[in-house]
Design goal:
Blueprint: H1 4-13, H2 22-27, H3 48-51, H4 53-65
């Protein structure tokens, strides 16, 4: 739990600001069925980690730039 070593002391100091709604940000982009892996995987947001990591990185970066201290993974 390497990250817990950083997270818990920060939490003891005060409020930790987390990211916003990842799903909402994903839906705001014009992604296609192919972006999600197509076929049976269409709409599988977790699959974007493989097919469109650039989109997820952009979203997470925007949260950090807005002041988030922690971001959650996509999976």
């Amino acid at each position: 739990m390497k990250n817990a070593a950083k997270y818990l002391p920060a939490l003891r100091e005060g409020v930790v600001v987390f990211d916003g709604g990842l799903g909402t940000q994903i839906q705001a982009r014009d992604l296609t069925a192919d972006d999600y892996g197509g076929g049976a995987l269409e709409g599988a947001v977790d699959y974007l980690s493989i097919t469109r990591p650039d989109v997820l990185e952009e979203i997470h970066r925007s949260y950090l730039e807005a002041g988030s201290q922690a971001v959650e993974t996509n999976s």
